Amino acid sequence: MERRIAILGIIIEDIKQSEKVQSILHEYNEYILGRMGLPRVENDLFIITVVLNAPQDKISSLSGKLGNIEDITAKVIYSKNK
Fold it and tell me: What is the pTM of this model?
């Protein structure tokens, strides 16, 4: 299956949800090239950026699972080149 490079941005507005986020990211660890976390950016806002190399359906699945968690926002930016 064709892979794509993408950046997944995750905003956590309730630190209690971070364990769920970490668990889901662990499920997709084979597709993660790198990640960076910024703790307590402002008003207890936590930001994680994840660089992925994965089939588009896996990226969408990961983003969807994260976005379904209360107080979590997840958005993906895809590279133009496949």
Answer: 0.91
